[in-house]
Every structure is written in C-alpha cells, then in structure tokens.
Amino acid sequence: MEKSWLIGIAITIFLIINFLYYKSLNGYVKKEFGEKMWKTWTSKMYFWQSALYTSAAITVLIIFLLKWARILTF
Question: Is 51 part of any domain?
C-alpha cells in the first residue's frame, strides 16, 4: 500500500513538472526555431527528450527532498 502511494505521488509530480515545462518553453522553442523547423520530427523529439529528462531529474530531487524532510518514508 505504501509503495503504491509513493509511485502515485511520483507520477503526479512528474506529470505536473512536464506540463509546466511544456507550457513555459513551447512558445519560446517555436519562436526560436520557427514554425517550419518546429514541424519536423527531430526538433519535436529533442524538445520532448529534454522535457522528459528535466521532469525526471526534478521529480527525483523533489522525492528525495520530501524524504529528507520526513514527509515521505521509503
């Protein structure tokens, strides 16, 4: 039971961070690369790859900060 809560919290944090990353940088990347370049799959792939890596790293950091603060126990 305890592990399912931890996994649920981690997935929720990951999705929230990924959404915020997308909302904050999507317009900037489209403007910087241009609409024509943004429509190619390589530009989108690099954007989503960086979104996943960033979200995963921040999620791990938040989970361990919550563990350090003794809010979560695992």
Answer: yes
